[in-house]
Specification:
The structure is a homodimer. The first copy, chain A, has two domains: 115 residues, NAD(P)-binding Rossmann-like Domain (Rossmann fold, 3-Layer(aba) Sandwich), CATH 3.40.50.720; 195 residues, P-loop containing nucleotide triphosphate hydrolases (Rossmann fold, 3-Layer(aba) Sandwich). Chain A has a six-stranded parallel beta sheet with strand order 7-8-6-9-10-11, sandwiched between helices. A five-stranded parallel beta sheet of chain A has the order 2-1-3-4-5, with helices on both faces. Helices cover 33% and strands 15% of the residues of chain A. The first copy, chain A, is of the alpha/beta class. At the A-B interface, helix 7, helix 8 and helix 9 of A face helix 7, helix 8 and helix 9 of B.
Chain lengths: 345, 345
């Protein structure tokens, strides 16, 4: 991974992470993802006086952060609805005036705000909206391409698909393998420095976007592709299926949160059975890669006592005959072992 | 169906169908669909001198068509790439100047052409792009809704899904049932006078668009929803799945072209087995409507001799235990019988 923004783009690390007036941990999910996975890129955090949370980074002012070497301010905080309040708009303009580029993971786009756009122009700075797909994404071709790809799929939204893909990237790299996380959502895109927000592309281009995210590679390395949604989520399954087809995955890891009672946001929809979910993903994946294999199960066990979490992983692992781990509390080494063994030359 | 454009919109029939300099039948597919399914709306056709095709309608000039009562000119012709040449742009402006509204099924949008937009504004006329989704489509909820819905699904793109849904609408109406075709593509939208081009919505909103296309109904009527793509098309399956989930269909008709050798545009991808395709659609549809039933198979047998076509329909019908017909050459009455019998109170 290069320590750059999108290829050729002027924005990139070192970053100052904007937390603004964030009231709770959930609202700084994007900033936390960046600070956790790319601490070497994060020079400090910028908080307003009423900010109730911290990433544990050094607090910096905007001018100070520039003097310390920061290049870009990252708006990694979400208000309700993903909108930017007047305060946040003023801060974005202040950052541009101070000489920083500004990137954002908000639904509300920097490039749609005329005052922010004017400030960027007059100060010669760049704006980047992680949730805006780049233009010119082609229709998917389904044409087989070189390289090895693993896709994380899930029983539901928000069950650890990004975290698992990033943990596998780290594990493979530590063992000396080439491996690249491929981002499909705004947090992942800020962590990777590139990617396509797949749920924001026009419907006809979902699989084409997935093909563009993980292009052919001939270096024996792995692409670890961040999954989205679930084939069993009635709101978003189309995104999940297009991503699955376009990824042409050689390997799947199924991600799951065992205490979830129903599909996120939909009380009428139960979480699918793990085995049925894996089978459905494998069946759909075979359309573009008949040789696809399951290589592990990733459970988010943060709501369970430690002994229950381990017992559950053992049970699920035995059921599937695959490594089953919580990537946060147990790591992903068993999955990496199994992946490498399954695809040894 | 009201003989209106989109609800509250000023454009609508009577139409003059613009053929321009069309060179072949394929390029006037949209105009032909409109003339075939809504002849009562089509006052005439407008052709340039070099136009090589006809819809069999009366040839009219733009000013003449207005004097005869036309309200709107429909650009129902496609050049390569869906672009508008300078000639077509000039004709659109001439129609606006003559006092007609202008609607288009082209990929190239009227509303993206500054000269056309300026002409519409200065003459107080309306532009409508059938391929541009309306703003404000919500995320799908999967919430069960009242009414009965039939969705046409397919083994591939362009196998008769729109035609079959329209034929079923006509058949049900002739028998005195309430029935409304629900359009998801540009030709269907011009035929219906409303609808959403589902492949042009942002990926996160596919199932929400399908829910908006076929809202709850309490009049014992049927919505006949135009399917798109195929669960087995590697480029577009995401659209098909989101449409399937959002439609919450009670009934499915599987459409197929028996002489097709591979998925449209993709020589490496064989056409799926009919039974496997039906099963995959039923399995996916059960997520939002567990009671979904298959009610028929529609074959496009236009490339087969008549006796072969009938023999094939008999064979396929026996295999599925369902009516199997070519809607064009054999009608859909057996399917309508079966549909009504399957859902009799």
């Amino acid at each position: 991974m290069s320590a750059q923004g999108e290829e050729g783009a002027p924005w990139g690390p070192p970053y100052v992470l904007y937390l603004g007036s964030a009231a709770d941990d959930l609202s700084i999910k994007t900033a936390r993802g960046l600070a956790y996975w790319r601490p070497q890129w994060c020079l400090g955090q910028y908080r307003r006086e009423d900010c109730a949370v911290t990433l544990g980074l050094r607090d910096v002012g905007l001018a100070q952060s520039l003097a310390d070497g920061a290049r870009t301010m990252v708006i990694g905080v979400a208000n309700a609805g993903g909108v930017m309040g007047p305060e946040m708009i003023a801060d974005a303009i202040a950052a541009l005036e101070a000489g920083l580029h500004v990137v954002s993971g908000l639904h509300h786009r920097l490039n749609d705000d005329p005052d922010i756009v004017a400030a960027a122009r007059s100060h010669g700075r760049t704006l980047f909206d992680a949730r805006a797909p780049r233009p010119g994404i082609p229709v998917g071709t389904g044409k087989p391409r070189a390289g090895r790809r693993l896709l994380t799929v899930g029983t539901d939204c928000s069950v650890g698909k990004m975290y698992t893909a990033l943990a596998l990237e780290r594990s493979l790299r530590r063992r000396g393998h080439r491996a690249d996380f491929r981002a499909t959502g705004q947090t992942g895109i800020l962590v990777a420095g590139s990617g396509i927000p797949i749920d924001a592309v026009v419907a006809d281009f979902i699989s084409g976007a997935a093909e563009a995210i993980s292009p052919a590679r001939n270096d024996d390395g792995w692409d670890l592709i961040e999954g989205q949604g679930s084939l069993f989520h009635p709101s978003f399954a189309g995104v999940s299926l297009g991503l699955l087809h376009g990824s042409q995955p050689d390997a799947l890891v199924l991600c799951h949160e065992p205490t979830r009672r129903h599909m996120r946001g939909l009380p009428g929809y139960p979480i699918p059975d793990l085995m049925a979910c894996m089978e459905a993903n494998l069946a759909a994946a075979r359309l573009t890669n008949p040789a696809v294999k399951p290589v592990g199960i990733a459970l988010n066990t943060s709501s369970l006592p430690v002994d229950e979490a381990h017992a559950l992983c053992e049970r699920v692992g035995a059921l599937f005959g695959l490594p089953c781990q919580d990537p946060v509390s147990m790591g992903v080494e068993a999955m990496t072992d199994h992946l490498l063994a399954s695809f040894a030359k």
